[in-house]
Write the C-alpha cells for this entry.
Amino acid sequence: MIPEKRLQHGTAIPQVGFGTYKIAPQDAEAAVATALELGHRHIDTAAMYGNEVEVGRALARSGLARDELFVTSKLDNPYHEPDAARAAFERSLSQLGLEFLDLYLIHWPLAATTDYVATWRALVEIQASGRAREVGVSNFQPDHLRAVIGATGVTPAVNQVEINPYLTQEPLRALHAKLGILTQAWSPLARGRVLADPVVGALARGLGRTPAQVVLRWHLQRGDVVFPKSTHRARIAENLAVLDFELDADAMAAISGLNRDERSGSDPDKVELGNR
Ligand SMILES: NC(=O)c1ccc[n+]([C@@H]2O[C@H](COP(=O)([O-])OP(=O)(O)OC[C@H]3O[C@@H](n4cnc5c(N)ncnc54)[C@H](OP(=O)(O)O)[C@@H]3O)[C@@H](O)[C@H]2O)c1
C-alpha cells in the first residue's frame, strides 16, 4: 500500500506518484500504462508536457475506477489571464478525457510578467465549481505564497518545487509546514544526477538497495510527495519498491548533508513569459 497524505479539502494523495515530464507523446501512453499496472495510482502531468491526451488514454484503458486514481495537471504559462486559465483548465480536462482533476496547479508564478494573484483567484473558483478537487501552485517562492494567501484567504493545497539531495529547500519546506501547504518534490532524483553520488552509493550498498530507492526513501521520510519519472519498466518498479525499508537518523542526515543549493531545473525567478 502506498502511503497517503491529506490535502486541504480532505482529498487523499498517494505519497509516491509517477512523473511524466519529458515523456514524448508517442511513449507516454505505454509508460503510464506500465506505471498503473505496477501499482501507481497518482499521475503528475501538465499541459506544457504535451502528453495529456496519451496520459488520458492510459488512464482510460487501465480499467481503474476514477476514484482509485489521483491525477494532477498544471496551467501552462501563456494562460494566466483568468478567462484564458478557465479555458486552459477545460482543455486539460478534455485532453485527459476526465470529468474532474484531483489537483490543478499554476505551473510557474511568472511574477514579473503576470498577475498571478488573479490567476490564483481563477483556480479557487475552479475548485469551488467541483471540477478540481484541490488546487495549488508550483515553483512559488515565499513572497508569492504570501501574496496569494493574503489576497484571497485561500491557501494552496500544495507547492510543487524542485527538491532533491542537492537542493534540500529547508527554508521553503519550513514555510510550507507553517502555512499548512503540502510539499511536492519535483526532480526528486535531480534528473538522475544524484544517483552517482558516492554518499548515496555507499548507503545503498549497505542497505542492499539501489541509489534511487535510497533517495526516494529519504524524501518519503521527510514527509514530501514524490513522482519520479522513468520510461523503463524495471526502473518504474524499482522506484515503487521503497516502502519496506527505513533510513536511520544518520543516513537521513548524511543525505541531507549533500545539499549544495544547486538546481537541476529552471530557477522560478527566471521563468517568465517570453524567455522560455
Ligand atoms: N512543476 C514543475 O515545474 C516540474 C518540473 C520538473 C518536473 N516536474 C515533475 O516531476 C517529475 C519528476 O521529475 P523529473 O522527471 O524532472 O526528474 P527525476 O524524476 O528526478 O529523474 C528522472 C530521470 O532519472 C532517470 N531515472 C528514473 N528512475 C531511475 C532509476 N531507478 N535508476 C536510474 N535512473 C533513473 C530517468 O531516466 P529514464 O526515463 O531513462 O529511466 C530520467 O532521466 C516530472 O516527470 C514531472 O512530473 C515538475
Remarks:
- The CA atoms of residues 109 and 259 lie 25 Å apart.
- The first helix runs from residue 25 to 37.
- The chain is about 40% helix and 15% strand.
- The pocket of NAP is lined by residues 19-22, 44, 107, 138-139, 160, 186-192, 195, 212, 227-232, 235, 238-239, 265 (CB under 6 Å).
